Amino acid sequence: GAGIRFDDVGVTYPNGFTGLRGVNLSIEPGEMVAIVGLSGAGKSTLIRAINGLVPITDGQITVGDVGLRGLSGRRLRQLRSEVGMVFQSFNLAKRTSVINNVLMGRLHHTAAWRTLLGAWSKGDVELAMQALERVEIVQKAYANASELSGGQQQRVAIARALAQKPRVILADEPTASLDPPTSHVVMRDLQQINAELGITVVVNLHFLDLARRYGQRLIGLRGGEVVYDGPGSEADESV
Ligand code: ADP
Ligand code: ADP
């Protein structure tokens, strides 16, 4: 996994809204961090700033040894290829197979002609199948993505991120569309991936109980500022 540093990071949107303000954080390689806060607290902004989807207007974010500010387009694409993203709404291509969705994670790691022709290499297919095994969806590899339940779709999205062989996985409210039992399955998958593969995981969670349980470290945001940074088990309702 890669470490992530925030040095005095501020994000002001073009309309003048504050996304983040004076954020200092040091996330160690292989750490799993849960971000909590009310709607509008800055959780999505923080996640998106890490892979350059939101430009920072103050300070610096460093992923591994790469500083994001002033990064060329080519190096930003390189960085994004090493950062897996998981979204609230899964963002799968619904009309194609599960395995094809997972192979999308190989897009930036494989020759363009292969991806255009769908002529994936044996290595790419093996990686995709391994990723599906890890989230226990391998028996659905050739099903259409739309046939899967919400929880299964989210696990396919996690497998797609894994197929990138990422150094970091960023998950933006990955359980927000799921019921509580399914939320736990998805969080356990993320926890296992973190523990067994050493991939750094940063996950936004709307519900404090999930964050307390799965965030060895919990970061609370309010108005774009860090108001809590400590063990999940010690965080109370005020974070
Ligand atoms: P979330 O709380 O999960 O970030 P929101 O409903 O707040 O979801 O935002 C949904 C989308 O709208 C996001 O892409 C976000 O960047 C954008 N957005 C949020 N607030 C504003 C705003 N004030 N002006 C423009 N876009 C916004
Ligand atoms: P959260 O994910 O915790 O709900 P966000 O990061 O989405 O919080 O939003 C933090 C603040 O930034 C909010 O005030 C929101 O309205 C604003 N914001 C988010 N996205 C945009 C955007 N694209 N344009 C303008 N303001 C935005």
UniProtKB/TrEMBL annotation:
GO molecular function terms attached to this record: ATP binding
Protein keywords: ATP-binding, Cell membrane, Membrane, Nucleotide-binding, Translocase, Transport
Sections of the chain in a coiled coil: none
Domain ABC transporter: 4-239
Entry-linked PROSITE patterns: ABC_TRANSPORTER_1, ABC_TRANSPORTER_2
Organism annotation: Paramicrobacterium chengjingii
Pfam families from the UniProt entry: ABC_tran
SMART domains linked to this entry: AAA (SM00382)
Protein known as: Phosphonate ABC transporter ATP-binding protein
Domain of life: Bacteria
